[in-house]
Amino acid sequence: MNYKLPDLLYDYDYLEPFFDKQTMEIHHTKHHQTYVSNTNLALEKLYEFSGLDINLLIQKIDEVPFNQYNYIRNNVGGHFNHTVFFKGLKLGTKLKNNLKDAINRDFGSFENFKELFEKTAISCFGSGWIWLILKNTNKLDVVSTHNQDNPLMRNISSEIRGYPIICLDVWEHAYYLKFQNRRSEYVKSFWFTVNWDEANKRFESKVINKI
Fold first, then answer.
1. Can you give the C-alpha Rg of the chain in angstroms?
2. Which of 189, 198, 4, 172 is nearest to 89 (CA)?
3. I need a labelling partner for 211 at 20 to 30 A (CA). Which of 13, 195, 200, 204 fits?
4. What pLDDT digit, counting tens, does each position of 53-106 carry?
């Protein structure tokens, strides 16, 4: 089974003025596509992994042979992370229902959560990802991962393991054309684009059926 670049559910200019058309198109058709292509190439001779759903494959990365481990980890992670990121973008949705209640419960308020998320994103050194995750304790947390790691990988620190609810790409390619070195402006623009409907769906799927 070859992985395919998922279609976006919107046009590349859909998120303007928050995220610009040129960045979105390059980000999707070049960066994400490269991770998909490299994943398929790497798995051609690893038959025991090539047929796995991407969600399962990302959790079995630690079983990949040592000589191909880093290459596959980076590319499978890149494919998975970008898939969650792009699907998690939409205009005009609102935080509500059980996810809203859980954020208020675990962070004290949405403003507290937002402040922590922004602080984590702005202070992330180098390239990586910022996540709102649901831990196996059914508690929410904000964590960051470097490069193309993500919280579903079994061999990362237990402190950052969990099920992704929302994520933000803080690699420079995600924002540099519009925001240059002003990552904080990019992070603040993110709140206008969060697909809370998708986030709530992901939350509900795991808060009932525990991780």
1. 17
2. 198
3. 195
4. 999 999 999 999 888 899 999 999 999 999 999 999 999 999 999 999 999 999
Q: Is 28 annotated as a binding residue?
A: no
- The CATH-assigned architecture of domain 97-210 is 3-Layer(bab) Sandwich (3.55)
Q: Which amino acid is at 33?
A: Q
CATH architecture of 21-88: Orthogonal Bundle (1.10)
173 known member of a binding site? yes
Omega of the bond leading into 17 within 30 degrees of 0 (cis): yes
**Nearest to 76, CA basis, from 16, 36, 115, 104:** 36
Distance CA 130, CA 21 (A): 22
State yes or no: 20 annotated in a binding site.
Answer: no
Which class for 27: exposed (0-12), middle (13-18), buried (19 or more C-beta within 10 A)? buried
Give me the pLDDT at residue 45, please. 82
Query: Residue 35: which of 150, 205, 134 has the closest Cα?
Result: 150
List of long-range contacts for 171-174, beta carbons under 8 Å, 24+ apart: 171/127, 171/128, 172/127, 173/23, 173/26, 173/27, 173/31, 174/23, 174/27
Q: Is 82 labeled as ligand-binding? A: yes
